[in-house]
Amino acid sequence: MEYVYAALTLNESGEEINEDNITAVLEAAGVDVEQSRVKALVAALEDVDIEEAIETAAAAPAAAGGAAAGGDGGDDEDEDDGDEAEEAEAAEEDEEDEDDDAGGEGLGELFG
């Protein structure tokens, strides 16, 4: 995780996310740096908009919490309509997740 934190620190400070900068941050924190992990991280983040990824990650728990809290104890007909809406919303989220996963493929394996 410290590798990702280094990238986030660089992003927040407006510095370029490259191998030298990540290595410098990690060394300053006392981490034994593995250059292969640094290279993999830089390559994985090459086409990623970090600000957008942060916003998406922050919005995901709120959306899930809202769906779980749904329903006000109304009659059965309203509940059926709500279930269909929730299913449609869940299907849309699954499609979005698949699109998101394609861009971050391999990140899970890298930081597992």
Describe the fold and architecture.
With 112 residues, the protein is an all-alpha fold. The protein is built from 6 helices and no strands. The chain starts with a helix and ends with a helix.
Structural class: mainly alpha
Largest sheet: none
Relative helix content: over 70%
Radius of gyration: 20 Å
Measured by DSSP, the beta-strand proportion falls in: under 5%
How many helices? The count is 6
Mean model confidence by pLDDT = 76
Shape: elongated
Order of helices and strands: HHHHHH
**What is the number of strand segments?**
0
Uncertain spans: 98-102
What features would you highlight for this structure?
single chain; mainly alpha; 76% helix; elongated; 6 helices; 112 residues
Sequence-ordered SSE layout with sheet pairings:
Blueprint: H1 2-13, H2 19-28, H3 35-45, H4 50-68, H5 76-103, H6 107-111
Helix pairs in contact: 1-2
Short description:
Helix content is 76%, strand content 0%. The chain has six helices and no strands. The protein is elongated.
